[in-house]
Amino acid sequence: MSGRAEKEKTPVKIICPECGKPKISKGSITGWLFSEKHCTCLSGGLRLTPSAAASAAAPYKELDTDTLASLPDDSINENYQFLEWLGRGGMGSVYKIRDLIKNRDFAVKILNAEMAGDPEAMKRFYKECEALAQLNHPHVVAVYGHGQTEKGFPYLIMDYIDGYSLADVLDEESYLSPGRSLGLFVPVAEALAFAHKEGILHRDLKPGNIMLTRS
User: pTM of this prediction?
Assistant: First the structure.
């Protein structure tokens, strides 16, 4: 038996003082997606988004020293402000950014130096960016633009998703019911089918690349 299956949970029920419904822990984010019996009030700066494409911007605030230390010494242009480092992959790093004109948050993926120095990789990257920008589907993260930072690193701007990956959920929960599994599978299958009709293959489908919003 795997360690994940052996993991036991002792749920703590916290009642929301505003709506009287139980709150959900971080690992149970899918409860907000498939159940109306839990609290969905705004709390601690949390904003519930109606879809994966929605990303309401928080009020502007000064960044603390630790946050600034994790941000790149680079810029896209004067319209964007780096807010937060989100993660790193084999091709580069992802950051949360603020569009100061639209007052809206996005995510930007910036390729690393090795990729940026490979002409063939660059050509493939821009071709993929242009193809992804044509996809318009409710279960596909939208791409809004691409280019190069002031220091010459390629970037891709896309939706910022306030939520968790399916990998996070699987780490927290030892079992997903057939109904919940089907509820996750169908939207993913629809998104892949749409992309395939447009001639685009994902090539890296895994729980870590499937995002669930907080709403």
Answer: 0.62
